[in-house]
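User: For a teaching handout, I'd like to show students what a predicted protein-ligand complex looks like in C-alpha cell form. I'll give you the sequence and the SMILES for flavin-adenine dinucleotide. Please answer with just the structure.
Assistant: Understood, here is the input followed by the structure.
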Amino acid sequence: MQNISELLVQEIGEDRILTSEHMNRHTTFRIGGPADVFAVPRTVEEAVEIVRICREQGVPFYVIGNGSNLLVSDEGYRGVIVQIYKNMSEISVIGDTMTVQAGAMLSVMAKRALEHGLAGFEFASGIPGTVGGAVVMNAGAYGGEMKDVLEEVTVLTEDGAVKAVPAEELELGYRHSVIPQKGWIVLGAKLRFQEGDSKEISARMEEMKERRVSKQPLDLPSAGSTFKRPEGNFAGKLIMEAGLRGFSVGGAQVSEKHCGFVVNRGGATAEDVYRLIGEVTARVREHSGITLEPEIKMLGTFPEG
Ligand SMILES: Cc1cc2nc3c(=O)[nH]c(=O)nc-3n(C[C@H](O)[C@H](O)[C@H](O)COP(=O)(O)OP(=O)(O)OC[C@H]3O[C@@H](n4cnc5c(N)ncnc54)[C@H](O)[C@@H]3O)c2cc1C
C-alpha cells in the first residue's frame, strides 16, 4: 500500500491521505480495524482523481459517508477508504429545490429546508447519515423515504464519467438502490420539497425527534436498525418474541430499549456483532420461521459461519 498512498499524497496532498487509519473513529458503531489508506477528498475533482488512481493501480477502494450503517471488520480494510463527508457538503437552495454535495448531513439539510419553509424532509432530520449514504440505502423513517424527494443524483460511473441520473433510474426500493450494483459513487444530489409552514415543519421534526429519543438507544454506539423490516412484520418485535432482549455476545448486545438495534455496550469487536447477528438470525428463524436479513453493510473479512 506504500505505493498507492505515495501516489495519492502526490496528487491530493499529505493532509487528505491517512495511512493505517482505525475505522472505529469513522463508524457510529465505534468498531473497525485499520484501513490501509483513508482518503478525504475536499472537492468532486479530488474524489474523481482518487478513484481514478485506485482503479488504474488495481487497488480496492470503498466509499463511506458518516459510517452510520456500517460494520467494519476487526482486521480493517485492505485498500483505500474514500470518505465523502463534511469536507464535501455544500448545500444550496433555490425555490423548492435543494442541491447538495454527497457529504451533506441529512440533519443539516433538514434544518436548511426548515429555514426556507420547505416541507417533506422532516423524516430525515434524525437520520445520522450523509445524503450520499442515504441515497444508496434509500434511507427512510416515519413514512418518508429518499425516493419521495429525490430528483436526481450526480454520480461517478465505473468508466470514470461524471453524469446526472434521474431518480427514477435508481430503482429505489425498501433500503435499496441500484447504485452499488452499478459501481457508481454519489457525488451530489438534487431534491425537491413543497412549500410549507415553518411552525408546522418544526413541530413535525420535534415530534419525530421525541419519538426517536424515547424509543431508540441513542446513548450507545450502534448502526441503527440492524436488520431489514421483514414484510408485514418488525425485526425488533420478532427478536423480542424470541426472548432475545438484552442478549449479548462479548460487548455487543441486543438493545434493552429497542430489540431492533444491536448496540456496542463498550469494547465490542466486529466479530462480537457478527456472531450476535448470526445467533439472533438463527433463533428468530427457529422461533418464528422468518429469516431476518441484515440492513447494515459489512466491510472486510468476517469469520466463516
Ligand atoms: C442511531 C441511528 C439511527 C438510524 N436511523 C435510521 C432511520 O431512521 N432510517 C434509515 O434509513 N437509516 C437509519 N440509520 C442508518 C443510517 O444512518 C442510514 O442508512 C444513512 O443513510 C447512512 O448514511 P452514511 O453516510 O452514514 O452511510 P455509510 O454508513 O457511510 O454507508 C452506507 C452505504 O452507502 C455507501 N455510500 C456512502 N456514501 C456513498 C457515496 N457518496 N457514494 C456511493 N456509496 C456511498 C457505502 O459504501 C455503504 O454501502 C440510523 C443509524 C443510526 C446509527
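For the handout, you might add this sentence: Residues 2-86 form a domain with the Uridine Diphospho-n-acetylenolpyruvylglucosamine Reductase; domain 2 fold (CATH 3.30.43.10).
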